[in-house]
Amino acid sequence: MDSDSFGVSRAPRCVQNPQGKDSALTGLLSHTDNKGGPGMTVYVGGCVLDLGAMLGADCGVVIGEDEAFERVAACYGVQVRQLVTAPLKIEDCVPGVVYKGSSWVELGVFLFGTVH
């Protein structure tokens, strides 16, 4: 899969709470389904407020180190694994697992196979 096969959608900047993030993801997914989907979704976040939306996507990724995120995830039975251990295909990501990347460069390698 190359970068030309990816589409990018972004939630509005005014989304600042977990319910709003979940709703924004649901809206983006329904918009994608109407465009000939199904596509694979990756939700990238940086804090515990993103956890629900990460779990709603095909693959959730948290960027950076956040001990609170990992504690809350563990309370809900969510595993946090290093991004380098993620499957090569997004569709093979495991439900209930969020992958942790150390940088946007690492995320680029995961998504595109190279740094862009």
From TrEMBL:
Span list, region Disordered: 1-22
GO cellular component: cytosol
Family annotation (InterPro entries): Thiamine_Salvage_TenA
Superkingdom of source: Eukaryota
Protein name: Uncharacterized protein
Organism: Dunaliella tertiolecta
Lineage: Eukaryota, Viridiplantae, Chlorophyta, core chlorophytes, Chlorophyceae
